[in-house]
Write a structure and sequence with these properties.
By secondary structure, the protein is an alpha/beta fold. 45% of the residues lie in helices and 11% in strands. The protein has helices at residues 37-41, 47-52, 73-91, 100-103, 110-128, 158-178, 200-221, 245-254, 267-272, 277-286, 313-325, 348-374, 376-384, 391-397, 403-411, 423-435; strands at residues 11-12, 22-23, 31-32, 35-36, 43-46, 95-99, 134-139, 182-185, 191-192, 226-229, 239-240, 261-266, 290-294, 334-336. Strands 5-6-7-8-10-12-13-14 form an eight-stranded parallel barrel, surrounded by four helices. Strands 1-2 form a two-stranded parallel sheet. Strands 3-4 form a two-stranded antiparallel sheet.
Length: 444
């Protein structure tokens, strides 16, 4: 059975193409700075939004029209696997991601849930034998079921802590079985609603202990995927412990976990934390902690996680600028943790949305690389901080001065002259590059 019979395969046709089922800018074989677009971008389809989400929201029932909606239980799970690998092939994507409950239904007991998962994982593994699409990462859903009402690894209930450990243990085994390149921890309910009933220190200590147990078990079974933490400030809990990259990094440093973890950064989570996407990417990058990306965008008029497909070219360009400066994403990728809008309920919309996101990041890649090649931003920043390359500034950077020497220097100063940061001009330069990827504009 074909679940997406609108097109045989989405191919690159160029910017002038009128075919909605074609890439206008994403050419997987096109070389940019010595690597193909496919190698740079490492696109991934998110199983949960694409195959299990039904369009339900707090004000309306599910309305997505899917060819598999008539099925239930394991029959539904198997049909979704068939649909998934058909879509992967037609989009020609190298990766996919999933939570355990996305691919297999939970049973009445943990043992039954594991049996369901084993059956579907065997089916996925069989499909992967003839597919180019690999597992970017998997994870355990420890936020949907009522048992996780007070958290998972940070729950006040030790039985819940043990259940969460069992799910992650199984998740690591699945990751190894399917050759997963990463394993993600998203603390959906690892946080609190009020400090009036919360032992914050115990919860954080237990979370640190949980991660160390995961590291130990991964070593025990020979799973060598990169561990990733995905920050989010709120929703579903009012205050989540992995609020942003900065707080996540402080946590990893305190619990001696920095050698084992990097960050999976989501654009919409960054904006919910009051940051830009590129801020979170840069904070991770300069601390050598950028691992992977959940590629989406939020709506600035709404205060929740809308998980829209990325089409903002400013955002994709500045994101790719950070990723290129990072030397790429290593084992990570650009995972479309994004869902079609509730009004986009036809199966075609799944294809349209991924094409839009992939083209948007392809443009971002090309523009960002030209910005780097031309040195326009680098040259401006270098000049702006040039006072730290000589004299007293260089002594500061080299650690060869102190407050006494700095005071003597300051006492000899006359009027201090600052130079403009030229923010508006730099934005106009970015506009020029976006409008003409061949533009070359010198710094000033």
């Amino acid at each position: 059975m074909s679940y997406f019979n609108q097109v045989n395969k989405v191919s690159f046709e160029g910017a002038d193409s009128k075919n909605p089922f074609s890439y206008k800018h994403y050419n997987p074989k096109e070389t940019v700075a010595g690597k193909t677009m496919e190698e740079h971008l490492r696109f991934s389809v998110a199983y949960w939004h694409t195959f299990t989400a039904d369009g339900a929201d707090p004000f309306g029932a599910g309305n997505m029209q899917r060819p598999w909606n008539h099925l239930q239980g394991m029959d539904l799970a198997k049909a979704r696997v068939e649909a998934a690998f058909e879509l992967f092939e037609k989009l020609d994507v190298p990766f996919f991601c999933f939570h355990d409950v996305d691919v297999a239904p939970e049973g009445d007991t943990l043992a039954e849930s594991n049996r369901n998962l084993d059956e579907i994982v065997a089916m996925i593994k069989d499909y992967m034998k003839t597919s180019k699409t690999k597992l970017l990462w998997n994870t355990a859903n420890m936020f949907t079921h009522p048992r996780f009402v007070h958290g998972a690894a940070t729950s006040n209930n030790a039985d819940v802590f043990a259940y969460a450990a069992a799910k992650v243990k199984k998740g690591l085994e699945v990751g190894k079985e399917l050759g997963g390149e990463n394993y993600v921890f998203w603390g959906g309910r690892e946080g609190y609603e009020t400090l009036l009933n919360t032992d914050l220190k115990l919860e954080l200590d237990n979370l640190g202990r949980f991660y160390h147990m995961a590291i130990d078990y991964a070593k025990e079974i020979g799973f060598d995927g990169q561990f990733l933490i995905e920050p989010k400030p709120k929703e579903p809990t009012k205050h989540q412990y992995d609020f942003d990259v900065a707080s996540g990094l402080a946590f990893l440093q305190k619990y001696d976990l920095t050698d084992h973890f990097k960050f999976n950064i989501e654009a919409n989570h960054a904006t919910l934390a009051g940051h830009t996407f590129e801020h979170e990417l840069r904070y991770a990058r300069v601390n050598d902690m950028l691992g992977s990306v959940d590629a989406n965008q939020g709506d600035t008029l709404l205060g929740w996680d809308t998980d829209e497909f990325p089409t903002d070219l400013y955002s994709t360009t500045l994101a790719m600028y950070e990723i290129l400066k990072n030397g790429g994403l290593g084992k990570g990728g650009l995972n479309f943790d994004a869902k079609v809008r509730r009004g986009s309920f036809e199966a075609d919309d799944i294809l349209y949305s991924h094409v839009a996101g992939m083209d948007s990041f392809a443009i971002g890649l090309k523009v960002a690389q030209r910005l780097i090649d031309d040195g326009v931003l680098d040259d401006f920043v270098s000049e702006r901080y040039s006072s730290f390359t000589e004299g007293i500034g260089k002594q500061v950077v080299d650690g060869e001065t102190d407050f006494h020497a700095l005071e003597q220097h300051a006492l000899q100063l006359g009027e201090i002259e600052n130079r403009s940061g030229r923010q508006e001009w730099l934005k106009s330069v970015l506009n020029q590059y976006l409008l003409n990827v061949n533009a070359t504009v010198g710094a000033k």
